[in-house]
Amino acid sequence: MKATGIVLLLLTLASCHTPTEKWLDGMSDYQSVKGKSLTLEIMKIKPVKEDTTAITYKIRLYPGKEWMENYTGHQKTGLFYSMDSCFVLRTATASYSPDMVQPVNNGIAGCYEYLLSFGIVKAMKHRQLQLVYTDKYIDGKPYQIILNR
Predict the structure, then answer these.
(1) What would the mean pLDDT of 73-89 be, rounded to a whole number?
(2) pTM of the prediction?
(3) CA–CA separation, 17 and 61 (whole Å)
């Protein structure tokens, strides 16, 4: 009887979520925003259960057909290697640069993909978070996506 009670107590404790885990669960799993010259998609990468130190997203950029036909080698190289300063997480009071921006060769024609990882800080929690992509190569415009559901 005592062992059954201990097992039930351990199962109950194991199923509890920390406040940070609940906050991460409330982040958007998928969103997209479409502009005249490009489409931006974001997809949340589910963290390992105990990892509450970072939020990671897969980002896909689809430039418009006209840009793809007229782009230069410099612009293409920039979309692969110079994207570090294009992404930020923004709250009402602060902006956070990514800890990692990794281009991904995904094999999809006309698509540029990146992995972004942001370290979670206490000031981010319980605030509205926006992922802001400021384009440098296609149309020069900022694109904003609210991450909190």
Answers:
(1) 83
(2) 0.81
(3) 33
